[in-house]
């Protein structure tokens, strides 16, 4: 993250009271998410749901009530964690959230997995709860319906397929474990067919893009994956990532081995995800399955464009959610015009802890 982005986020957290602070999550551990909710409550934040956010955006006055602090919690992708951990905690604290899902990845089954409530009541072990993230990494329609019916969760669109492709040979990071020891670069793992994670750690992650913005895709020499994975295995395996300087070590080793890899090549994109189809059909599918309007669109990888905004407005969305990269461009966060498309930038969830000092 650029320093200018960090400064803008801190300014928004500390001084901007005109718009609700919108936080972006993918996954979260129970104690971490609980601490965030408790901190927001301590700082007297009112956590808004989607309909409440839309009402705030549509107000003719650009100011909330005097001294009011407002926040919105959003979760991208529709991952298992939203059911096993987040939903039970939303019920516990009686707060609302917005889930942006990828319809093509949602399981079509009436079954639903155990969650924290089952663990609290002794009906399931923590290990089984933990492992459910690997067995079924995405939510089911049944789970989504239960959460929506609670009145605490709204379901909106994150694109139909969320296809992520490599666009250059530049290595930007390496595959590594995140929450619940699941891969941080979830799309690469999912698109590869959910292979065993022990063989994924250390694999190079190349500069990437949402498919509609790529005409060509970079095809790397896959030997690099094997070489980097072997390096991780020989240096402690999963425990390698407990090392404070693990990323520096991987970049150094990759640089020393790069001459042994092929250069890779580019090829023209085939069956590319189309922005119009993705935006339109995801909305249609969600509304059909959830029997409710999908009015918000979260741009995959935070990569928007004027074309995406035009399509979203044509589809009938009321707001498009981007990431912190767009902070400087936010110019219509509040509008008296009912037909205006709101462009809303979000703050990565870990910044919530900085509210302690503000």
Major sheet details: 6 strands, parallel
Q: What's the order of the H and E elements?
A: HEHEHEHEHHHEEHEEHHEHEHEEE
Rg of Cα set: 21 Å
Distance between the termini: 21 Å
Low-confidence stretches: 326-338
Structural class, please? alpha/beta
Task: Give the fraction of residues assigned to helices.
Answer: 25-40%
The count of strands amounts to: 13
- Please, what is the average pLDDT? 91
At CATH level 2, the architecture of the largest domain is Alpha-Beta Barrel
Provide the domain count: 2
- CATH topology descriptor of the largest domain: TIM Barrel
User: Which shape, going by the Cα principal axes?
Assistant: globular
Give a structural overview.
With 358 residues, the chain is α/β, with parallel strands linked by helices. The protein has two domains: 3-160 and 274-357, Glycoside hydrolase/deacetylase (TIM Barrel), CATH 3.20.20; 164-268, no CATH class. It is built from twelve helices and 13 strands. Strands 1, 2, 3, 4, 5 and 13 form a six-stranded parallel β-sheet that branches. A three-stranded parallel β-sheet has the order 10-11-12, with helices on both faces. A two-stranded antiparallel sheet has the order 6-7. β3, α4 and β4 (97-101) form a beta-alpha-beta unit. It is globular. It starts with a helix and ends in a 10-residue tail after the last strand. The relative contact order is 0.15.
């Amino acid at each position: 993250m650029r320093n200018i982005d960090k400064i803008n986020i801190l300014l928004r957290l500390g001084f901007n009271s005109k718009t609700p602070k919108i936080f972006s999550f993918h996954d979260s551990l129970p104690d971490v998410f609980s601490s965030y909710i408790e901190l927001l409550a301590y700082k007297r934040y009112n956590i808004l749901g989607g309909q409440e956010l839309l009402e705030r955006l549509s107000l003719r006055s650009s100011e909330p009530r005097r001294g009011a602090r407002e926040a919105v919690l959003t979760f991208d992708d529709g991952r298992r964690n939203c059911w096993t951990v987040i939903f039970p905690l939303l019920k516990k604290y009686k707060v609302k959230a917005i889930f942006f899902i990828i319809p093509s990845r949602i399981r079509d089954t009436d079954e639903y997995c155990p969650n924290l409530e089952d663990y609290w009541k002794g009906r399931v072990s923590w290990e089984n709860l933990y492992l459910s993230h690997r067995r079924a990494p995405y939510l089911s329609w049944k789970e989504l319906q239960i959460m929506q019916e609670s009145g605490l969760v709204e379901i909106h669109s994150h694109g139909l397929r969320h296809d992520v492709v490599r666009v250059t040979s530049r290595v930007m990071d390496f595959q590594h474990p995140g929450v619940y020891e699941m891969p941080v670069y979830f799309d690469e793992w999912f698109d590869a067919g959910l292979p065993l994670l022990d063989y994924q750690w250390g694999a190079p992650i190349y500069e990437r893009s949402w498919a509609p913005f790529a005409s060509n895709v970079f095809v790397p020499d896959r030997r690099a994956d094997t070489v980097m994975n072997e390096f991780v295995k020989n240096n402690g395996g999963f425990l390698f990532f407990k090392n404070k300087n693990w990323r520096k070590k991987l970049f150094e080793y990759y640089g020393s081995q790069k001459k042994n890899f092929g250069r890779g090549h580019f090829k023209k994109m085939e069956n590319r995800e189309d922005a119009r189809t993705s935006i339109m059909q995801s909305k249609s599918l969600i509304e059909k399955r959830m029997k409710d309007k999908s009015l918000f669109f979260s741009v995959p990888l935070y990569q928007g464009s004027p074309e995406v905004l035009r399509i979203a407005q044509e589809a009938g969305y009321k707001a498009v959610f981007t990431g912190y990269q767009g902070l400087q461009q936010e110019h219509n966060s509040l509008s008296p015009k009912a037909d205006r498309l709101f462009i809303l930038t979000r703050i990565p969830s870990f910044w919530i802890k900085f509210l302690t000092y503000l």
